[in-house]
Design a protein that fits this description.
Length: 415
Amino acid sequence: MNKFMDWVTNSFTPKINKIARNVWVSAVQESILAAMPMVFIGSFATLLNIIRKYWSAFPDLEVISTFSFGLFSIFLSYLIPESLMNKKQNQDSAKQAGLAGLAFFLILVYPTITENGIIQFDINTFGAGGMIAALLAGLFVAVVMNLATKWKFIGEDSAIPDFVAVWFNTLLPILIILLIGWLFTFQLEINLYSVINTIFSPLIYLGQSFWGFVLVYFLGFAFFYSFGISSWVIYPVQTAIALPAIAQNQSNYSMGAEVTNIFTNEAGSVALIGGGGMTLSLCIMLAFLAKSNRLRLIGKASFIPSIFNINEPIVFGAPIAFNPILMIPMWINGFVGPVLTYLVMTIGLVPIPHSPFQLWYIPIGLGGWLFTQSWQGAVYQIILFIISWFIYYPFFKAYDRQATKEDYEMETTED
């Protein structure tokens, strides 16, 4: 175990963190996070629409979701090239890169133009279903715009105003980007949107499999996290699978078709009771059952955040991170939670989520009901909590004995 911990600490963790700090990866992460408030708005629309199940006179607010969560890909197509240019210290042309990304994405989704000059889009391509296409479009534009900064028509020493220089220096790369889009869509009549989704369909298929769901949530929210590696490292991959999946579930449900995609943020959130690794039960043990004064204080300080599924205080305060005694039950819970969630949804004991609801910080019980829009989801969360309690308890007792002994030795030394 010591050799494994040394390898993870000195080799594995630094390499993963280096990848996470890469400007291209961090630009995608930052862009997704920047657009998340629009996804949350869609979640509020879903929450309010639950009222319509019990009060038919309540207005249908689904259109709010259409113009927030439903435009997620458009937002990404702008944000990714803008973020990358900022990170590459090319702030003067960042907004132009964002606009070029938006324009290129709108060409890429294969619009049709009628004889009367009316342009028509499939609005489904603007939502989470077009996320991978938007991501690649944004990265392509970022590459072209970043390369163009090395060859400028007007140098920094020119007497021409800076904003005018930016105009002329970005004309050629933007023209190249739009010509490429024009060539594929309007001349070769190749639907790049469909091509991209076809190429990446194996990723989506793999993600929707049992092992895809289990491994992503286990690695990101338990294993990596226990070594101090943020779950945001896998967030782009997780989001690329989960958001299109819930969008398809929503579409299928509205048409009366079967809802099949389990790998969604909503389903994953059902098993995040107190945060990754289902740490709420451990927090309660520390706060109210620990004999160690230090652990009891940490538990009480972490209690309120844990109720809302924020477990950084306990992961790094107890700590769980780099602590072999508490890492092991966190791994077990981080594996058991996704496994059971996938199974109960597969066999129909708990409904598969069919509406976007990204408010993952909803407390246990209420969260299960809102994520799945069923009482079964609430009951299932409570059962998961009980299971997590039994898994954590023997490790908690062992760690509490160790911490109590350490507290006593410290007090004796001070005296």
